[in-house]
Design goal:
The protein is mostly helical. It has 20 helices and no strands. Helix 3 packs across helix 7, helix 5 packs across helix 6 and helix 16 crosses helix 18. It binds a DNA duplex (14 and 14 nucleotides) through helix 6, helix 7 and helix 12.
DNA sequence: TTAAAGTCAATAGA
DNA sequence: TCTATTGACTTTAA
């Protein structure tokens, strides 16, 4: 609800005050973990608030989140990153003790924060925690203490080798939900992680460009062609869509922030606005949102243009064909393998094979050999295909590069640990250094938007040809 | 049921 | 080590 910059910053303050008191010392907060009960759903196993907040306060984190004003997620992460790096504190420590998240999640969160208004209640939680942490004058100190304690505990454990589960201190200290004790029997059945080969990724990306929301049939086809499990393909599309979307968010945010560097409105407002605008001008907000049917827009539609172009050929089929084509690049490698396709690929573990997913704990080496593919490169027979691959690839490259830039390096702003009260919230987004990368980003955005339009057109054509109901709002 | 959102956790790279 | 990436899983919404 908070709209005006003013109100948001003010409320931030109040929020801040609300929670500030409860977290005097980290250790206390630690032991205060009992109150986890407040955590509603199933997630209790992990994360569950080890956090330094509400040690005893009546407010649970959920409540705080619920009553939190709009926060400037980008600014918050920026400051957090600064504080962490300035004080040599790791994401793991921070994540586990302050956010109740794993390192990877923290990394992701810090690198690609979604705008506040795009976050669900759950998704806002970490940001509220970060804000609270930033507001805590002793934040760094506490984390340092934690670090020390962890180390001590570790040493102790090591020496006593007793593995009596790092009971005490750990609990008092950061709750090692890390791997720590592996309380239960080691999950014997660990599924090896699937690692998609670059060719496979390329093929999937191409397929995505043609059709961000492939039909089951297409997915099936892709899976078969690439010799991947259907679920892997499905997961890949889910993940890719969602990640692309986030990329767009940050690009928008950054673009927005720099375009109005000097403006006085609140950062939070700005960030959200930026995001909105993007959606807005993609005429349909289509972009980032693109739920299944209603709004297709594929965010990163970079190359959608091609898709659109070709799609017009045939309606529904187009997508499929596209998929087919997309496969070409990757296929060669698969093809090389006799069994790969149809050939009853061992259903037992359909795709496992390829990249070390199989029983073999996949090592780089394995992957290499398995993926023989090898055929791909240099194989004249595949030249045609590879050509298309290359084409596609180049575009990805550019996209990727633009993404790179987009990850703005936090710079100035208010580093200092300690007292960066909410005021910082207001000062965020003042960066101008980003300007340097602006052109690239702009063009990238433009490309994406244009691609979006193409995609829309494409889908409209499709829809029209099959007379399916369309409800596009332009 | 499907897609999105949010995470985990393995692992790739510095 | 630490951070970044990413396939898979879980929860939430529609």
């Amino acid at each position: 609800a908070p709209e005006s910059p003013m109100s948001s910053s003010e409320s931030v303050k109040s929020l801040t005050e609300l929670v500030q008191q409860p977290c005097p010392a980290i250790e206390t907060s630690k032991d205060g973990k009992s109150q986890e009960s407040s955590e509603p759903p199933a997630s209790e196993s992990q994360s569950t608030t080890p956090l330094p907040l509400s040690g005893h306060s009546a407010l649970s984190i959920q409540e705080l989140v619920a009553m939190s004003p709009e926060l400037d997620t980008y600014g918050i992460t920026k400051r957090v990153k600064e504080v962490l790096t300035d004080n040599n504190l790791g994401q793991r420590l921070f994540g586990e003790t302050i956010l109740g998240l794993t390192q990877g999640s923290v990394s992701d969160l810090l690198a690609r924060p979604k705008p506040w208004h795009k976050l669900s209640l759950k998704g806002r939680e970490p940001f509220v925690r970060m804000q609270l942490w930033l507001n805590d004058p002793n934040n760094v100190e506490k984390l340092m203490d934690m670090k020390r304690m962890e180390k001590k505990a570790y040493m102790k454990r090591r020496h006593s080798s007793v593995s009596d589960s790092q009971s005490c201190e750990s609990s008092s200290a950061g709750i090692d939900y890390s791997q720590g004790a592996s309380p239960q029997p080691q999950h014997q059945l660990k599924k090896p992680r699937v690692v998609l080969a670059p060719e496979e990724k390329e093929a999937l990306k191409r397929a995505y460009q043609q059709k961000p929301y492939p039909s089951p049939k297409t997915i099936e086809e892709l899976a078969t062609q690439l010799n991947l499990k259907t679920s892997t393909v499905i997961n890949w599309f889910h993940n890719y869509r969602s990640r692309i979307r986030r990329e767009l968010f940050i690009e928008e945010i950054q673009a927005g922030s720099q375009s109005q560097a000097g403006s006085s409105d609140s950062p939070s407002a700005r960030s959200s606005r930026a995001a909105h605008s993007s959606e807005g001008d993609s005429c349909d907000g289509v972009d980032a949102e693109g739920p299944p049917e209603g709004k297709p827009s594929g965010p990163e539609a970079d190359e959608f243009s091609n898709a659109a172009a070709k799609s017009q050929g045939g309606p529904a089929e187009a997508a499929f064909e596209a998929g087919e084509e997309a496969l070409r690049g990757a296929r060669p490698s698969e093809r090389a393998e006799p069994e790969s396709l149809e050939d009853t690929d061992d259903e037992g573990r359909p795709r496992a094979p390829r990249q070390g997913s199989p029983a073999a704990p996949q090592r780089p080496g394995d992957a290499l050999e398995t993926l023989p593919n090898s055929a791909t490169e240099g194989d004249a027979s595949t030249s045609a295909a590879s050509t298309s691959v290359l084409t596609g690839e180049s575009s990805y490259k550019s996209k990727e590069s633009s993404e790179k830039i987009s990850s703005v390096p936090s710079t100035s702003s208010t580093p200092g640990a300690g007292s960066q009260k909410s005021n910082s919230l207001q000062s965020l987004f003042g960066f101008s250094e980003a300007a340097s990368s602006r052109n690239t980003r702009d063009s990238s955005l433009r490309k994406k938007k244009a691609a979006n339009l193409n995609n829309i057109i494409h889908r409209l054509e499709k829809a029209a040809s099959r007379e399916e109901a369309v409800e596009w709002e332009f």
